[in-house]
Amino acid sequence: MALISDAIKYSRLALGLRGFLKGTITLEESKQRITERLRDREKNFLNLVQKGIYQNPQSPFFQLLRVAGCEYGDIEPLVNKEGVEAALKKLLAAGVYVSWEEFKGRKEVVRGSQRFQFKARDFDNPFLPVYYQKQSSGSRSAGTRTTFDLKHQLEKSHYELIMLANDNALGVPMGLWYPVLPAAAGISNALRYWKIGNPAARWFSPVEERQVQSSLTNRLAMRYIIYGSRLWGARLPKPEYVALEEAVKVARWMADTKQQYGGCCLSCYVSLAVKVCQAAIENGLDIAGTHFTAGGEPLTRAKRRQIEATGASVTARYIISEVGHIGFSCPGATAADDVHLLRDSVALIQHRRKVEHADTYVDAFIFTPLLPSAPKILLNMESDDYGVMETRKCDCLLGQLGFDTHIHDIRSFAKLTGIGMTIVGTDLVRILEEVLPGKYGGAATDYQLLEEEDGRGQTHLSLIISPTVGTVDEGEVVATVLRELRRAPHPGKLTAGVWGQARMLRVKRVPPLTQMGKVMTLHLIKKK
Ligand SMILES: [Zn+2]
């Protein structure tokens, strides 16, 4: 049966690919499409609510709206009169939202006297054809199965074109440095860059399939897309393994390409961009004037400085797979990670909340995807990110299109991110509180994990072990953590593969920071 359903999915994928790869899009078409989406924003939102929720009783929001006593007839006039965000704020106050852990099915949903247990797949958009299930990982999302949909890839391609034009990076050879499947970023970017007529010339992968224990389905799907695309005339690059410590190979490709073609652009995770730039400086390679488009983790001031020290420029991309493209850098902004909020495809509201296990408050981001092709149907999903939101006019291409909401200082309050791999705090808590004390002694409070950034913009994870725990073999403790991570839900294996290779984890024998919680992200440590 699996073979038959796979065959159906693959033939659907073939048909979809053929349609997707038919022709490329132009800048004018992208501007027009985005203008239409901004114009249709309220209509798209109401359509999703009506068809995706009220006519789809499987949707968890069908139940949450019922508990809130809210009918479609209440929402429509509210949106038409006060707008999407005002309606979302009222729904949030009435208990219509999901936290990240509720969305992932890790926490029971309690609203009033009602209790529910949802799974991430309950939120799937029922109107999308299923080609195969990709798994998110590299985009601050920590592993949800998301339907890989070519229509949504096309909608997102319009942004890529605008963004490259905004950064004067169109028309130069493009490279990718993203992992192979199960991480979806590599193959999705390869398809989108082809669609905008700026195909990737090279695709470097920081991991091999065996390092991340890629499943047969993933390995087949990738070959199918790459070789299938060639049948339809699209030459997508094949992934070439370049280990993290070989960043100089990517830097050399950028320097050579720049010399030969006058420019070069690399799309990758923020930490990888930093590694390429460090390698360029250490090896005297000239990549001045080249461009990076980088996402998957916060573009901090230190990381931006490190990249710009080479004379290269960088665009921040803020993407959450389950939500979609959320923001792209503004070239004129002052904050290191300032992005224009892509209001045509996502609505954002904020609410002030206390961070669990920490004595601090944040303005959490709550997202609602708006496009009919959105992979998940969500009303007010708390992503565990927070930051600053403001309205500002700007005359860059994104500003001209009408995107005047900016967000910046975007950080996570409950997830750890390193080399684009995101892992939810609760997965680590079990390792820190149960596995390590069980194996090496001490109490649950003797172990802690901190995300830290060094002076060169590199993120490290420090595994704090209290000196009161006796002598331990530090290498063995790190190996234990990685082994346990592999057992955690997706992207545990992928994360262990990348973190292991990057030597992300360092042991520090100091007393754990008190009152700080078990797993501390970069920003929360700095706030203290
Ligand atoms: Zn701008």
Summarize the structure.
The chain has 528 residues and is of the alpha/beta class. Helix content is 40%, strand content 22%.
How would you describe this protein?
With 528 residues, the protein is α/β, with parallel strands linked by helices. 40% of the residues lie in helices and 22% in strands. It has helices at 2-20, 27-39, 41-54, 60-67, 72-82, 84-93, 100-103, 150-166, 185-195, 216-231, 247-261, 270-282, 301-308, 397-400, 425-440, 474-487, 492-502, 522-527, and strands at residues 109-111, 114-116, 133-135, 145-147, 174-177, 200-205, 239-241, 265-269, 291-295, 313-320, 324-329, 339-341, 346-354, 361-369, 381-391, 405-412, 415-418, 421-424, 447-453, 459-465, 505-508, 519-520. Strands 7-6-5-8-9-10-11-12-16-15-14-13 form a twelve-stranded mixed β-sheet, with helices on both faces. Helix 1 (2-20) runs parallel beside helix 10, helix 8 packs across helix 9 and helix 15 (425-440) crosses helix 16. The radius of gyration is 23 Å and the shape is globular. The protein binds zinc ion. Zinc ion binds next to helix 14.
Bound molecules: zinc ion
Shape: globular
Which residue ranges are poorly predicted, with pLDDT under 50 across at least 5 consecutive positions?
131-147
Largest sheet composition: 12 strands, mixed
Count of discrete alpha- or pi-helical segments spanning 4 or more residues: 18
Q: How much β-strand is present in the residues?
A: 15-25%
Q: Helicity, in percent? A: 25-40%
Spatial order of the strands forming the largest sheet: 7-6-5-8-9-10-11-12-16-15-14-13
**Average pLDDT taken over every residue:** 85
Total E-strand runs: 22
> Roughly how many Å apart are the termini?
55 Å
Structural class: alpha/beta
Rg from Cα: 23 Å
